[in-house]
Amino acid sequence: MKRSANLGNRASTVLGRKLGGELLRLRDAAGKTQQQAARTISATNSKIVKMEQGWVPMRDPDIRVLCEFYELLDPKAVARMLELARLDRERRKAKGWWQHAPQAEAMAEYIAMEDVATGVRAWQQALVPGLLQTPAYTRALAVSEGLWEDPDEIEGIVGVRVKRQSRLSGAQPLQFYAVIGESALRQQVGGPEVMRAQLQHLLEAAQLPNVRIQVLPFRAGSHACIAGSFSIISFAETDAMDVVHADGIAATVWVENDSESSTYRTFFERTARLSLAPRDSLGLIETISEDMH
Questions:
Q1: What is the CATH number of the domain that holds 225?
Q2: In 155-281, where do the E strands start and end?
Q3: What pTM value is reported for the model?
Q4: Hey, how many other C-beta atoms are within 10 angstroms of the C-beta on 220?
Q5: 40 is in which domain, residue-wise?
Q6: Residues 6 or more apart from 145 whose CB is under 8 A from it?
Q7: What pLDDT, in 10s, does the model give residues 89-138?
Q8: What strand order describes the sheet that includes 243-247?
Q9: Domain boundary among 92, 125, 148
Q10: For 213-271, how does the pLDDT look when each residue is reduced to its tens digit (9 = 90+)?
């Protein structure tokens, strides 16, 4: 588990650790040693260690050779590894679009992961998930946080959120599964008019084939995820390790090992089972919208 208030542009990025972890998993599955891997790419053992820990940017030729050595034969899986490496190199050089928006700084690592992910499962107890927020809802949140006072800065935050939402459309849209606490739907962020529009937006977003929304009603009582909100980020590779992001008030927690991320998956599934079915969830959202005044 990694904890950071602001990861910045340090040597080992979350993307790098993700890619390194996948290489380590492949090497273990293939029964190869670090020495054997090093010889395969004409490198030292220390380079393999640095690669597997995500400490260094990785070259495409090294990844291709290692994937072949580890008998990863699926061209799509190899292409995904190369894409992770490319994004990681850009992240280190601050070339991702999010690096040019100061308002995205605190979320830069998360956005980089979301940009290359194939699926996200999000549990939100008190807020509408970012990928489903309307500009007015995001704007109201930014104002209430009090961290940004300049209107242009606040609009920058809104712009970053809107750009992130483009992942829900396109040729390969993100598969997004959100479980939302009922309190998030009833809290009048920005007032009743803003909230009614937000609830209507949830109803519209739920019609997308890649978006699933469930609501955990108040009557469900205590549940596995009551301690806090989080997102589980998934990737295309077979048996790829999920990465979990939990954002607190003063710190970000990244869960990057399989045993801990498995715990989050289990908790998410338990909470989803306590939640209303998608159709009933949309019915509750519509009722709350109609009753809001």
A1: 3.30.870
A2: 175-181, 211-216, 230-234, 243-247, 252-255
A3: 0.75
A4: 16
A5: 8-92
A6: none
A7: 866 765 555 555 555 566 777 887 788 788 999 999 999 999 999 999 99
A8: 2-4, 252-255, 243-247, 230-234, 119-124, 175-181, 211-216
A9: 92
A10: 999 999 999 999 998 899 999 876 555 668 898 877 666 788 877 778 889 999 999 99
